[in-house]
# Entry
Amino acid sequence: MPLTEVSRLRLPPHPDDGGFDHAAIHRSGSRLYVAHPSNDGVDVIDLSARRFVHSLSSLKGVAGVWVSEEGGLLFTTNRREDTVSVFRLPDETELYRLPTGSRPNGIAFDARRQTLLVAGVGHPDIGAPPLATVIDASTGRRLHQFPFPGRSRWATFHAATDSFYVNIADPPHIAVIDGGTPSEVRRLIDVPGRGPHGLDQDPDGKTLYCACDDGQMVQVDVDSGIVRAVGALAGAPDVVWLNARLGRLYVAIGEPGVVQVFRTNPWALLESVPTAEGAHTLTVDPRSDEVHVFLPHSHEDLVLRDS
# Structure
């Protein structure tokens, strides 16, 4: 079995209906950052010491977290105040807090141009549409804002094709935005599964991996536009994460509480590892091949090593 438990790291408690959201790792700083929405904070873990250090606070409803290793930056989307925060690493100084569209969630970053794209979910009850907000992270200046054709989910920037990709839940599409002129949705890729949710990319090739709410795993060749359903999932997925060196894709499924491990070439399901009810988010440390899964009821980071 490739995944074995290494440790469990205690994190700050939260209310019974709380939990964790997206997470990312700053490799050179050996730190992990995980959103803790119910506590309005980002929990910081020292990976070398294997311990919780502190929380970055006053980030209302923080949901998305992304680290730019090249730029030495940490980004968070703060859904209850419709803002995005930009922190400098490794000292974790907040440089900017900027307005976005309603209920920001997904983040993608073009490190070469220092362009940050924030995907807002929108709020139909108050007539707020899903919006993309594009920001120059070097200055904090907003460059563009434009609508999505439906509720957005996770996002990524694919350097090989110089494009941003954003999952659209309904109708099920992946929106493609040009990296050089990120001012509109350039085209839409039809997705044959309901509710595109988790999204990751092969950094050395031209493949996207998209996990859908209806339990389908979808593979997209971004050059040809060919989309294939390649596997069935154990339930509705949330976060997916690729370890490109090992050729493994990890999918967090909160119900029934498992991480599914797929080999990407040739495609195959390797195993389903029980975690805990509601554990819908994870991240991967590529230096150690460790998978961090966040358990909402025990307030823990479950560390699994891929052997």
Notes: The chain has one domain: 16-247. The domain at 16-247 is CATH 2.130.10.10 (Methylamine Dehydrogenase; Chain H). The first strand starts at residue 3 and ends at 10.
